[in-house]
Amino acid sequence: MSGMRASQSMTFPAFQRATLWALAALTMLLATSVRSNFVFDDDPFQPVTQDETVAVGGVVTLTCSVKENDNSSLQWSNTAQQTLYFGEKRALRDNRIQLVKSTATELIITISDVQLSDDGEYTCSIFTMPVRTARATVTVLGVPGKPVITGFDDAVEEGGKFTLTCTSSGSKPPAKLHWYRDQEEIQGRPDVVESNPDEPTYTVTSELTLTVTRNDNNALIACAVDHPSIANGDKRTEQPLSVLFSPSMSIQPESDLPREGEKFFLQCVGNGNPEPTAFVWRRKDAELPPLAKVDGAFLRFESLNKSDNGVYECQADNGIGMGDITHTLLVQEAGVNAADPTAMSTSSGVDHAVIGGVVAVIVFIMLCLLIILGRYLIRHKGTYLTHEAKGSDDAPDADTAIINAEGGHSGVDDKKEYFI
To answer: What range does the record give for the signal peptide (predicted)?
Structure first.
């Protein structure tokens, strides 16, 4: 019995020592693990990495470097902690992964044709005592697909409303959609974002509602995708609008100065969507001339006559509505030279100006003569009255006063000189 007690007392301390050794080893392992995940700025053996962002299908470069090395090798591992490169040695059979540079202080690799599955944290390790590590996060951008616009199935009549829908799939993070009318951005409804099943990408949808006018016909409506994975601007899809509207009319004459005896036509032009195909010609307050023939949009005159003068109306129908326009026809006499309408117009203008100038001069001269004649008559009448009064005052008797009034003082003086 005493021997068994001695044996037990001897084995217990040995079991205790084993337990202590296990605890010590576990503590050192945990300390090493913690130390490997902690970055010491002043540690020359600590690896340094940086995060990278790359679009699907692109190439990402992973760089790991240390200031000093004690002949330990650098290693890159992927998100599943599979070794990619250990120094210069390839560890994973993936031809997309290539070695760029391997030295004692630097390990650089590239991954081409990047996929969404390559997204995550990559680890660079250096197997010193203890092992040191650094992590680099690779963010893989899902490239959005070209937007698709729906809602252009039918044309819309002027004043009506229609709704367009733009959809783009495959973006990560979610893309943003923008609407444009020609080059001007217009506001649509807020984007609706939905995650795609079985992959970390999104589908984005936006709607645009417009009330259209005839000015919107053939306008380009565009939906553009904005996303950081698109290097050269945005992706966009354009679609012209088709707006139905009644025709607006105009009449184009063959010449501005039609002459008697000439052939001549009036053309009716209707701007509408669709283009008008039915035309009706009328003459205001009279029947069409016998030599005027309707030829669709044309009204043709075989030989113009003064009797063709009048107001002509064209009416067009395109199935959406009707439009009408009038034109006044003035036929020139056959002797009028219509070869140079500009010269005729200029000559006529000059003639009128000359005639007007001559008339103005004549009126001015007549006014001047009337003024001069009036002043003369007024002055002559005043002199006559003054002389008549003087003759009467100076006469010694009635007979002499009459003589003085009739002949003035000069006559009296002469008679006096004669009698002397």
So the answer is: 1-36
Question: Is 176 in the same domain as 119?
Answer: no
Residues 6+ apart with CB under 8 A from 39: 46, 134
Please count the structural domains in the chain: 3
Would you state the structure tokens that stand for residue 297, as one six-digit string? 């949009």
Q: Residue 291's domain is classified under what CATH number?
A: 2.60.40.10
SS3 (DSSP) at 170: strand
Residues 333, 338, 344, 345, CA torsion sign: positive
Q: From edge to edge, which strands make up the β-sheet containing 74-77?
A: 52-55, 132-141, 120-126, 74-77, 83-86, 89-90
Rounded Cα–Cα distance for residues 74 and 305 (Å): 104
Determine the Cα–Cα distance for residues 362 and 368; give it in Å rounded to an integer.
10
Mean pLDDT value across residues 252-271: 94
Q: Which of 137, 128, 142 is nearest to 44 (CA)?
A: 128
pTM of the predicted model as reported, rounded to 2 decimal places = 0.61
- Give the integer Cα–Cα distance in Å for 408 and 420: 19
237 & 252 share domain = no
* Same domain? 136 vs 69: yes
Strands 161-171 and 148-150: antiparallel
| Residue ranges making up the domain that contains 153 | 148-241
Instruction: Tell me how far apart the alpha carbons of residues 349 and 357 are, in angstroms, rounded to a whole number.
Output: 12
- Give the whole-angstrom CA distance, residue 336 versus residue 218: 46
Domain boundary among 274, 297, 329: 329
Q: Kindly report, residue by residue over 124-142, the tens digit of the pLDDT.
A: 999 988 999 999 999 999 9
Domain end residue (candidates: 276, 294, 329)? 329
DSSP 284: T
Whole-number Å distance between alpha carbons of 243 and 260 = 44
CB atoms within 10 A of CB 216: 19
